[in-house]
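User: I'll paste a sequence; please echo it back and then give the predicted structure.

Assistant: Echoing your sequence first, then the prediction.
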Amino acid sequence: PRPRPSRPGDDRRVRAPGDAHADRAAAPAAPVDTFIAVRFGARDARGLQFGSDVRVTPGASGGPLIDCDRGEVVGIVKGRHQQDHVGLAVPVTALRGLGPEHLVAGAEGLGPDPYHALMSLHDRWHWAGQELGRATGPTWFDAQHAIMAGRGRLWGVQERLQALDLLARLPAPRDPLIVEAAVGEVLDRGERPAAWSLRTWRDGHGALYQGSDPYTELRTFVHYLRIVAQLTADEVRDQPGEAAAAVREQAVRLAEFVQAKAVVLQPQDRRRIGPVRRRPRSVLVEFEPLFYDEGGAELFNWSVSEGYGQGQWLRVDVQESAGGVPFEQAREQVLRQLGGRLLRADGAAGPGARVRLEVAVPEGHWHTAAGQWEVAASTRRTARLRPVGPGRAVILRDQGRREQVDPAWLRRWQGLRTAPALQALRVRPGEGGGARPGPCAESVWRLLETAGEGALPALCHTVADGFGRDAVGVALDTGFPAGLWPARGHGEEQDCDVGCEEFHRGVRELLQGSGGVVRLPELVRQLRAKAAEAAEEGTHWARDLVLLYDDPEDPIPPLFPDRPQLSPR
C-alpha cells in the first residue's frame, strides 16, 4: 500500500468490487462484472471518498479498492454515504495504528510492534510467491505486472516487490522520525513528506511515489534504500551476537540490490548518492603535546574530529601553531566552540541524538574532568553555559594509543565484551609506595597482569602524579581499555578514608548492574546526572568521576605527518 492521499477532483481510475450475487433469485441475463470503475474524490476523517455512477451494492463492503495506475490496494470498501452519495473506503494506512492493545483475547499476537510484523510477513509472503517450483496459480504480482507492462517504468513492480522483501527482513527503525528524515533528505525538503506518519521503512518507500518521470523515480528509490541500508548497518555495527550479525548481513543484501539498480544512473547522480551522508557517533577532542618551553611547561596543539565508528574519523577543527599553547589555554580554546560542534553533530546524527564526547589526553592529564566542562547550550551568541557530562556520555581516551592496536589491549577489550560480569579491581600502593618498575612495584604489576577478564581498575588516588599516574600507566601497558577514578583523588601522603570507601562501594555497585562494558558510558552519564541534581542520596562521589574507555576496535585517528612530537622527559 502506498501512503499517497487523493485530492479532490483526482481523475485517477480505481476499481471497487460490485456484487455478482445481489439478486440470487433471478437468473442473470449476462455475466456480471464483479468490479466497478470509480474515481477518487478526497480523503477526510471518514476515510477515502470516491464518486461513481454505479451504485456500491450490498456485499461490496470489505472488498479491495484498487489503484489501477499501479495495481495497488489503497483501501478497503466500507459502503456508501447516503447523504453525500459517495462511496467510502478505509485507507490501508489505517493499519499503522495497529498496536498490541488490539489483540483479540486468546489469539496469537504479533509482538510489541504488530504493524511492522504484519507488513513484514505480508511483503515476504508476496516475494515467496514467485519462487521457482511453487505449485500455485497466478499471483498478485502477476496481475500487477500485467497492468504495468509496457509503461516504461524503471522502478516497476519487480523492483518494488524485491525492495519490500528486503526491507521486511530489517528490524523496525528505532524512531519513526528517522524514516521521515530519510524521506525528507531524498526529496530535498525538510517538511513532513506525507499526510500520515511514517512508522516503518516500507512506509518511507511508499511516500516516494510523487508522480515523477521514470528516471527521477528510480534515482529517488535508489537514494532512499541506500540510506536505509547504511542506517541499519550503523545501528548494529558494534553489537555482538548472532542477531546483530544477521541484521548486518541483511543490510549488505539491501546495499548490493541498490548498487545493481544504480548502474543506469547518470554519473553526477551516482556521485551524489554514493557517499551517503554519514551520521557521527561521537566528537573527539585531542590534545597533542608538542614540546616543553624554557620554563618546563608542556605546550599543545589540539584538534576536534567527528567519529563514525571502526576507526573512521573526520577532523573538523584544528588548532596548529609552531609554538603551541599551555594545556589550560588549549582547553579554553576548545570549549569556546565545542558546544556548537556538539550540537551540529547531534543534528547530523538524527532526531533526539546526543553524540558521545571523547577526550584524548597524554600521560599526566588523565585526571582531566571533561564531564564537568561547561559548553554553550545553544548556538546563540549569548548562550548560557551548561555542564556537558549530565547530558551526554563523556569518556577519556589515551592519547598514546592509536591505529596500531597492541595485542594485549585487544585481548583485554574482547575479554571485557564477553565477560559474564564486571568486577572492580581496587589498585593500592604496594609496600614502599609507587608502582614504578622495581621491587616495590611488583605487587601492582602482578595484580594487573593476572586480573580476570571482567576486571576494571579503580583508583581513589589522584592520577595526576605519583602512584596514581604510575598505576594508570601500568594498567595501559598491560592492556586495560577501561578504568574508573575521581578527577580529584587523594595523594600518596594521605591514607584512604571514608570517602574512598564510598567511592569504591559505588564503583562496585555500578559494575555489578552494568550489563556489560559497552553500557558503561551511558551508565556513568546517568550517574553524573543524578550527582549533579543531587537526585539520589549517596551519588555525590560521582560528580567528578572519570571513565577511561578506550575501544581498540575504534582507535583514535593517526597523528598528522611531519609533526614534531613531545619526547619523554
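The CA atoms of residues 336 and 375 lie 7 Å apart. The longest strand covers residues 298-309.
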